[in-house]
Structures are given as structure tokens and as C-alpha cells.
Records
---
Amino acid sequence: MFKLDPIVISGREVLPLVEGGKGINVSNGESSGAWAAAGGVATFSGVNADNYDENGNLIPMVYHTKTRTDRHKELIAFGIKGAIAQARIAHDISGGQGRLHMNVLWEMGGAEEILEGALEGAKGLIHGVTCGAGMPYKVAEIAAKHNVFYYPIVSSARAFRALWKRSYHKHGSLLGGVVYEDPWLAGGHNGLSNSENPEKPEPPLGRVRELRNTMRECGVADSVPVFMAGGVWALKEWEEWIGNPELGAIAFQFGTRPLLTQESPISDAWKQRLLTLKSGDVLLHRFSPTGFYSSAVKNTFITELVDRSHRQIAFSSEAVGDHVAELPIGARKRIVWVTPHDREQALAWMEQGFTEALRTPDSTLVFVDAEKAEEIRKDQVDCMGCLSQCVFSNWAQNEAGTTGKKADPRSFCIQKTLQNIGHGGDVENELMFAGHNAFRFGSDPFYAGGFIPTVRQLVERLAIGE
């Protein structure tokens, strides 16, 4: 019979079942508080989290200032207040059970300030900080300042070694664990390196064994757990990991399955869409304005991005090499030079209604219709600096306020679409992050007849290996 023993995480013995922290408002205080109350490790999102007024009504994130830099300051203020609000809700619902963690993305705009503000404003309510999407060197220093545990999210042993050598060795006693996020299977943003093939996934066991060996070389005790994240559905499929001396203490992080619970804040339409997914319905892509790979459901939103990128040709500002054919673009019909074949292709796209040619940082043109071109331009102008640097708008969190590169029309405003879908937006026309096992909702007998469990029912089922 399957048996799952508790382990010590963030200073308390709990079930090694971890709720993955999904950004914006998908892991909020209500869902996370319920997870902690069930005896697991809850993780609410500290990424532009929702805040409420004195009557419990959602406070919309409306920006009143004119410049990106000033809107960025507004966003940080929103983020701090929202994270504190979600921490308090989660703490109250947990009843003092389990552990409560906050998740931040290192590449989000104002990450350090939001983390500092949340830990100060919710002092004593947050037991740990998980942090990924980049190399979060300073998260250890910030966590130590507030005496909470920290949990870096990495996708390789090499990444952990770099973090340890540069920073973490100074605060080793508060390293609560290391989250290994499988770069091929996890939902949301994925840590694929340039040396790894997105189409050739590597089995996680060997990579986690390498991570544990690296942790040992750094002097980290085997009792400090590795959280296996990405592709985890039922623990009976992972029995060789549990109690395996090669791996040391292991916990399992679930990002996708908590989406389909009664306490999950996502819309009913989103929940029903999850129940219809088939194998292969989640795409590992690179359209994110972060520049990272990420995984999302193949819906109209993703399909449009794929099609947009396919309607792309190289150009030059003067005749050179094979670029000998003139192509007039824009309202002023300015001439660019392309190959004769690409000219014919571009004219065909224009004939189909994709009349707007938008320049990319790679000296290519992408062709979209007039409505999409206007949407792209407006979203770029409305940028509020939600990332430390943005491919889509060319914002950067620096004195210049820019990456110094052209804005890339092949990407999208991630803050806009995640806010939209998180607050009841159309699930076909917004970004819907999901792990690659999401199709299993439709075949798992636990969800037969469209059954949606409470968080407690899900945790109890996970604890018996199902």
C-alpha cells in the first residue's frame, strides 16, 4: 500500500505535497489557505496579486500616470498591497495548519521591492519564499533579513551551483529546499537553457539526482528537500523517488491539479475547458515577452501568435545580396528590400487582409491585419513595466527605461492577458498557462462526470498516491 510520510518543511512537519504558485491571481489566499489547512505546503502568488476594498470588492488595477516609469511605480504599490492581502486571507483560512509560502518571479517588475514590502507588511504570516523565472541571487539575502526560508526554482544542477557560489552559501541555514521545475513538462515559464532541445525532453530522475549531488557538494544536508515540479500527477507513479537514498528528502509540487478545485479562483469556463483537453493540447513555445520558453493551452490566443510568426519575412533597408525586390509598406509606402519570393508571399498575405507590416528586432517583418496592429501598438504604449525587461514593449527596469532594442510585435502584453483571464476573460482568446499533463483531467476517474473536488479532497487523494 502506498504510504506518504510527512517531512520538515519551513520548520514544521507537513505532508510533502506542495501547491505550485501560479501567477497573478490563480493561486490566491483562498486556494492556498485551504491547501495549508489540509496539512500541505501552500503557495500563493505574489505576482501582481489582487487586493480588495473594505467591503471585500476587488480593486481594479487602473493606472493613472502617463509614463511607463510612473506606471511601474503604481504597479509595485499594487503588488505589495495585493500580496499582503492574500497572505492575510491564506493565514486566516489555514487555521495555523501546514506552511504558507509566497511565490515571486525574479524577472517581474519590482520583484525585490514587492518581496520586501510583502514580507514586512505580512510579518509572521509567510513561512517561505519560492522564486524562479531568472537567477534570483538576492532572494536569500532578502529572506534572511526577514527570517523566512527561501526556495529557489531551478531546472538544472548547474543553475543551483551558480546561485550557491554567488550568494546562497552566505545564508545556507535558511535554504528551505530547492524546487526542480522540469523544463519540458511544467506549466507557465520554463527554464530551458540554450544547450537543451525543447523537442527532446530528458527524464527528470537523472537531472534531480545530479541536483542532489551538487547540493551535497555544496554542503547542503539531505534533509533539505528537493521539490519535484512539473509532470507530477499521481504519486503512485513516483514511488521509486520516495525514500530513495540517492535523492534525499523529496516533496512533490502540483501546479496543474489545484486549478480544478472548488476553491480555485479561475472561472468556471476555464475549469470546464481543462476537462476537455487532449494529449498534445499544451504547447511549449517562446512567444512570452520574458524571452523564456513557456507552456500554455493551444487556444485561439496561441494559434494567432503561431500564425503571426509564420507570416514573417526578412528585409533590408537597401538592396543587398538576394534582397533585390522592392516592397512598399506602411501608410507612406516606404520601400524595403526583400527577396523576390518573399515579395510574392508578402503580397499574398496583404491580399488576404494582413496589410500591416510590423518591424521586429531581427530585421524581419510580420504581417497582421489593421485591427491587430492597432492592438499591438496600444498595448506597447500602455506598458506598465510588469517585467524587469520586456521583449514586447522594450521596457526595462533601468534608468533609461528601455532595453535599447526595438519592441517585438511577435510577442504580447502578458500583464493584460493574465489579468483578463484571471478575472473571467474569454478562455479562447487569452493566455491559458497549463502543465503538459493537463489532458489527464479528462481521463482520471476522480473527475468523472465533471466532478470538481475541494482542496481538502484533492490533498487527501494525492496523499494516497492517486
Note: The mean pLDDT is 92.
---
Amino acid sequence: MAVVEMTPTAQDRVKALLDRDGKLATHGLRLKVIGGGCSGLQYQLGFDDQVGDDDNEIQHGEVKLIVDDKSAVYLAGTVLDYVDTLQESGFKINNPNAKSTCGCGQSFGA
């Protein structure tokens, strides 16, 4: 089992964003946990073309997901999804390790 799973919807969205900029072959989506936010830890998403020695590179179809070892401890079993409804649009992170979350859903406590 991968550290982080991606739904097909999330894979399609990442692929579309990277395709738009011509970076699908060279970049991946980095999911990172950093200190901060109202619950103590927060997620950081961004595109990256560097994979270091302490990174886990997880291939999901045509999309590469990059998670560093420190973040992997907090993200084991997480599912990354993408939603686009009338109420909300964006990536959703379903993290079974989050003991508490803030109202905005961007920070958590473990």
C-alpha cells in the first residue's frame, strides 16, 4: 500500500494542471506536512521537479506524488481527492491520523 493514495479524480486534476504547463513528464505533486495552522500542523501542496534521498516517489497512473519521510509519518493511509461542486472546489485530504482538524480543514493535530 502506498503512503498516500490518490483518487482517479485527483489524478485527473493533477494531470490536467501539469499538462497545461507542459510539465507532466518533469514534475510531480508534492504533499508535505509543516508546522503551523490553528491545529498545529498543516498540509502544503505544490508542484516539484526535485526528488531527494528522503522522498517517497509514488506513481499514480501518469501522475507522480512526492512525500518526504517526515511527512509520511503523519500521512500514512491518507487519501487525496479532488472535488468540484457548487459548495466547494479543490483538493481534499482524508487523513486517518488526524486527531483534530480546524474549521477550514487545512490544519490538523496528530
Note: Strands lie at 4-6, 28-35, 41-48, 55-60, 63-68, 78-84, 89-94, 100-101, 107-109.
---
Amino acid sequence: MAKILITGGTVFVSKYVAAYYVHKGDNVFVLNRNHHAQADGVTLIEADRHNLGDALKGHHFDVVIDVTAYTADDIVDLLKGLDSFNDYIMISSSAVYPENNPRPFTEEQAVGENRFWGAYGTNKIAAEHALFQAVPHAYVLRPPYLYGPMNNVYREAFVFDCALQKRRFYIPRDGQMGLQFFHVKDLCRMIDRIVERKPQNHIFNVGNEDTISVRDWVTLCYEITGTPLEIVNVYEDIEQRNYFSFYNYDYKLDVTKQKELLRDTIDIKEGLRESLLWYQDHMEEVNKKDFFGYIDAHWK
């Protein structure tokens, strides 16, 4: 049984990670301000990571899984409050790569501002830098779009809503833009491999090896709901985030290093099926955007 500290623990990735390690039988502590329901089986440390005081004193953690580090101060303040730990794993983002880098993005490429992600990406870069300055043996994972049960971001849930309401689906242009996903359970499995094997590499792109076109992704979402799909291709010069869940940004991560540790990933159709089953019982937990309002006003 490992003693694990997870930052967050109440929303999507951090909550799933907490539940995953509880299910494995580990001793899971979550650090948050107790504003939302906690995952079953965790021990709550109620505190703000920027004002920890003695909240973490006297604890030694086998693994720190930092899901909620978005800035350098997030890293610095947490490390000040920690007593001791063995492994530190930070969940970063593919947003650290400038959009004009050669594709697929590799871990060796320069990081920098991405015009689609702006400060989110540059703050993640600063957080990574602060972590490695203080903890050179730490690990950083850079995922693309994460999906799966507990996802509170209106991505696959938006397509499910369209399908369940038997609506036509408005796809940007020809629908061939590629999307790269990574199931949140595969993220946990990758963390397991790192803790078990202590690889020499300390930065990993993580994700499904293959991208999927927008059209194929929407088709899968409709298929698992059992709803016939009618596609409307949108060629108008309008911001697609008004009516669709993703930026007009086609990129791919090279996950060769990940595959040395985690060769198989969850089939995206099966992952989406899990997402639908969760969503049908937790619709109120998703942060929904008013895509329908724009669509109905613009095209009807």
C-alpha cells in the first residue's frame, strides 16, 4: 500500500485519479479547499496550496501526483509545505508546445507560447521549470485532450447531448481536422509505470498513438447512443468555438517514449462508451456551454 498525495481530488482528472488509487488499495490523501464532494475512500487535507501552514507536516508520501499545478507559484508553495516524498509527478499539457512547431511534437522540441492556449500554456511551462529546479528527479506528463468518466468539460458530452436530442451535428469544414485523445485511466496507468520503473526520461508526451478526425469522433459518439447521424458541414468564416467544442487547431504528439512504458491504450470507442454511461447519470456535473443557443440562432 502506497501513501499518495493528490492535489485537487474533486473534479475530473484529479477526482478520477483519487478514485483509481483508492480502488487499488492505496492510502490516498487529497489536498483541496473542500468546496466540492470528495471521492469515496480518500483522506481530506483541507487547505489552500498557497497557504499550507503545517497541514502537510509530519507526512511522508510515496508519491505526490500534482494535477492542479498551473503556475510556478503553485509548485513553489506546495513544495514549501511538503515534508518529504519519494516521487513527484506533475500533470502538464500539450499546450506548452508552440503551434508552429514541426508535427508531431516531441519532448525535445522547444516550448513556448501557443496562440490558441496563451497564458495557460506559458504558465504550465513556468510550473514545469520551477518543479525541475527544485526536484530534478520529478516527472512531467504532457497529455493532449483527456476524456473519460468524470469529464466535466463540455466535449464528448456536447456530442452526446446532440445525439440524445436527435439533432443534426454541425461540423467545421470537411470534418477532417485531427484530434488526439488520452483516456484518464490510461493517464493513471502511465503514472503506475513511472512509479514502478523510474525511467531515465523525465518528460513524457502521453496520448493515443493515432489521432481521429472530427467526423469520425462525432460518428462514434452518435453510434454508441444508437442515434442516426446527419452532418452539416460549416464552411462559413466564423469562430468554430461558438458551436463546437474545439479550436481550429490540428496537432499531434509523438508518444514514442510513452510506448516504451505503456504500449496499449484504451480503444476510443470503448472509452467513449464509458464516458456516455457516466454522463447519463451525472449530467449536472458537466460545465455546459450554450452551443445550442448559437446554433439555433444562427442556422434556424
Note: The chain has a mean pLDDT of 97.
